[in-house]
Amino acid sequence: MTKPIDRGYAYDMEFELQAADGSVLPATGVSGIWRLAASAGSAQALITKPISSAISEGGKTLARVSLSTSETEGLTLDQYYHQLSISVSGGEPRMYFAGFVRVAARL
What is the dihedral of CA 46, 54, 52, 12, to 10 degrees? Predict the structure, then answer.
């Protein structure tokens, strides 16, 4: 499970990208989409963020997703489903992450 999203505050996530064999993906040519939905069976995402690049850091390739204060302030205190799909060099999209995240209240 991902760390909670603090409602009304900016929020950053990092996802380590690896090939099916466990090798590190190259940072060049990476694109994708991160989505947040009310539940895994939702027909529509509440927030969609494009991934237009990745970075190499410490021998890893990372995709970063950032949410603004305005994006998190409209979320209710609940658990949400989120997923990340990635394509490399125009290839078929592959699901890299799917799971749940909680939205928490902060002062």
Answer: 30
Q: Tell me the C-alpha distance between 23 and 55, whole Å.
A: 15
- CA 28, 53, 61, 47: dihedral to nearest 10 degrees? -150
Q: How far is CA 18 from CA 6, 27, 34, 45, 57, in A?
A: 28, 10, 16, 25, 13
Q: For residue range 2-37, list pLDDT tens digits in order.
A: 789 999 999 999 999 988 898 988 888 899 999 999
pTM of the model: 0.89
Cβ–Cβ contacts within 10 Å for residue 52, how many? 9
Retrieve residue 11's tokens. Answer: 């929020």
